[in-house]
Amino acid sequence: MGTRLKVLSVFKALHRTRMTVFKDDNRALTAARLKINEEFKKNKHETSDENIQKMIKMGSDVDIVLRETVMQMEHIGEDRLVLRPRESHLLENVPYCKDDPESSCVSESESDV
């Protein structure tokens, strides 16, 4: 894929990720859009292929970080927040309970399998 197409692909991916990560948060959506556009415009006239590849890598890394680590929270009261994890944050996990053999947790011998 040509460099121009890679840059455009990262640009579009960041905007798609922005729409998912900051869903229903107009202030964050606007701030993210402005920042993405600003960074791409700032480097629009870069000609060094090495620097362009580094920036493409940086953009891809930022996309991954946004998708995997940013979670939305919403104020529902003066002292309460609701966490809105996306499906990408939900992991299959079995609790480990060493001291309670009656529970449905995985025992030490089962966890070594």
Automatic annotation (TrEMBL):
<dbReference type="GO" id="GO:0005759">
    <property type="term" value="C:mitochondrial matrix"/>
</dbReference>
<dbReference type="GO" id="GO:0044183">
    <property type="term" value="F:protein folding chaperone"/>
</dbReference>
<dbReference type="InterPro" id="IPR050435">
    <property type="entry name" value="MZM1/LYRM7"/>
</dbReference>
<comment type="function">
    <text>Assembly factor required for Rieske Fe-S protein UQCRFS1 incorporation into the cytochrome b-c1 (CIII) complex. Functions as a chaperone, binding to this subunit within the mitochondrial matrix and stabilizing it prior to its translocation and insertion into the late CIII dimeric intermediate within the mitochondrial inner membrane.</text>
</comment>
<dbReference type="InterPro" id="IPR045298">
    <property type="entry name" value="Complex1_LYR_LYRM7"/>
</dbReference>
<comment type="subunit">
    <text>Interacts with UQCRFS1.</text>
</comment>
<comment type="similarity">
    <text>Belongs to the complex I LYR family.</text>
</comment>
<feature type="domain" description="Complex 1 LYR protein">
    <location>
        <begin position="6"/>
        <end position="60"/>
    </location>
</feature>
<dbReference type="GO" id="GO:0034551">
    <property type="term" value="P:mitochondrial respiratory chain complex III assembly"/>
</dbReference>
<protein>
    <recommendedName>
        <fullName>Complex III assembly factor LYRM7</fullName>
    </recommendedName>
</protein>
<dbReference type="Pfam" id="PF05347">
    <property type="entry name" value="Complex1_LYR"/>
</dbReference>
<keyword id="KW-0496">Mitochondrion</keyword>
<dbReference type="InterPro" id="IPR008011">
    <property type="entry name" value="Complex1_LYR_dom"/>
</dbReference>
<keyword id="KW-0143">Chaperone</keyword>
